[in-house]
What does this fold into?
Amino acid sequence: MQLERVFENNQKWIQEKLDTDTKYFDKLGSGQNPELLFIGCSDSRVTAEELMGLGPGEAFVHRNIANMVISIDLNVMSVITYAVEYLKVQHVVICGHYGCGGVKAALQSADLGILNPWLRNIRDVYRIHKIELDDISNEENRYERLVELNVKEQCVNLIKTSSVQKAYRDRGLKVHGWVFDVHTGKLIDLKIDFEKYLHDIMEIYHLD
It folds into this structure.
């Protein structure tokens, strides 16, 4: 990649926006009011706004390896707190994707150095769902199912947080789990039963 192209593309993008709306950047600079927090994978193929058909200002986005919500990760927890408590988003989406290198790496019995502590969280998802996953004989199908189960478990981790619990109680915040199929371009809604998960964990994780 020639980095000069990036700046050339930027100039073209600016002109395209101004040709459509001469006040586009005035509006963009006036602030943000997104209704959705998108937590996705850092994979270069998963472009959050583009796959949802959204423009700047419509989604608050956080990305990390394998779309994880880990309670001791100050980065993701700060993003969640800011988006939910200050931006007042109405929806939080955890979006995984088939072909995820982080999930595939977690399935390997290998020492991956600094990645080990991060991938351990995905291996814990496998441990929780080991019976179901070991019953899937096709390796690719097992891998894709782990992608889906990882999304569901990250939604559970999200529901454990006080910010999300309070926003649900006070203004009906919703949590969603999606998977992006890199082979077809489709977004798949895993139909996360937010209220059931919330009810199931409330005895231990009730923070209101």
Summary: The chain has a mean pLDDT of 91. Strands lie at 36-41, 59-64, 91-97, 174-180, 187-189.
